[in-house]
Amino acid sequence: MGGSSRELRVESREMTRIIFIGYMGAGKTTLGKALSKTLSIPFYDLDWYIENRMHRTVKQLFDERGEEGFRIIERNMLHEVAEFEDVIISCGGGTPCFFDNMEYMNQQGETIYLKASPEVLFDHLKMAKTVRPLLLNKTPEEVQAFIREQLLAREQYYSQAKHVLDINLMDNYEKIKQSIENLRTLLNL
User: Fold this and answer.
1) Concatenated DSSP letters for the chain?
2) What is the mean pLDDT of each run of 10 residues along the chain (189 residues)?
3) What pLDDT is recorded for position 131?
4) What b/e string do you get for 74-105 counting C-beta neighbours within 10 Å, with b at 16 or more?
5) Rounded-to-integer distance, Cα 144 and Cα 55, Å
6) What distance in Å separates the CA atoms of residue 103 and residue 111, rounded to the nearest whole number?
7) Closest by Cα among 61, 68, 29, 58 to 45
8) C-alpha distance from residue 101 to each of 46, 68, 98 (Å)
9) Contact of 44 with 87, CB cutoff 8 Å
10) Backbone phi, psi, residue 137, to 5°
11) End-to-end CA, the chain
């Protein structure tokens, strides 16, 4: 038969999964939302995702199931949302520190540790509108000591991220925009 064969070309585009990790107050949600808007990719805050799926606040889940029960839910929801294509995810500060979460996130996409000093994190948390249950009923000195202690314990997990972005100077809109540009360069976006 004298049929002609035509080559079918399918343009393939690399799927984008970006996962922000770091301590509470590091700006994971702020940068995630800004990058989402810049790249027109959906953004998911893992805690918000959990709350919507479970119809309970993170605090309620902690109270009802304890930390271990919450961490199991968190892991399951991480596996769910990290399967989405073209997504930006902001994880809770403790997410990388349990199970094989950090290894899993590194397999799924580009992980970015938003790194800041305890002093900067303390300042961010003081200004935040969100109530952080772990910080309730603590004096400013106790909060600073708590942040230093937790950062020290979590650094071994955070440092496994593929990329590190220093956010110590991310204190206004222009610097946030610059951080987004730095991220785009870092990730070749």
Assistant:
1) ----------------EEEEE-STTSSHHHHHHHHHHHHT--EEEHHHHHHHHHTS-HHHHHHHHHHHHHHHHHHHHHHHHTTSSSEEEE--TTGGGSTTHHHHHHHHSEEEEEE--HHHHHHHHHH-SS--GGGTT--HHHHHHHHHHHHHHHHHHHTTSSEEEE-TT--SHHHHHHHHHHHHHHTT-
2) 49 80 93 94 97 95 94 98 96 97 98 95 80 76 94 97 88 79 87
3) 66
4) bbebbeebbeeeebbbbbbbbbbbbeebbebb
5) 32
6) 10
7) 29
8) 13, 14, 6
9) yes
10) 60, 25
11) 47
For residue 171, the model assigns a pLDDT of 66
At residue 177, the pLDDT reads 84
The amino acid sitting at 59 is K
Strands 43-45 and 110-115: what pairing?
unpaired
CA distance 95 to 154: 10
Side by side, the strands of the sheet bearing 43-45 are 43-45, 87-90, 17-21, 110-115, 163-166
| Global confidence as pTM | 0.88
Task: Say which amino acid occupies 165.
Answer: L
Residues 19-52: b if buried by 16+ CB within 10 A, e if exposed: bbbbbbbbbbbbbbbbbbeebebebbbbbebbbe
Give the pair of three-digit tokens for residue 180: 């987004």
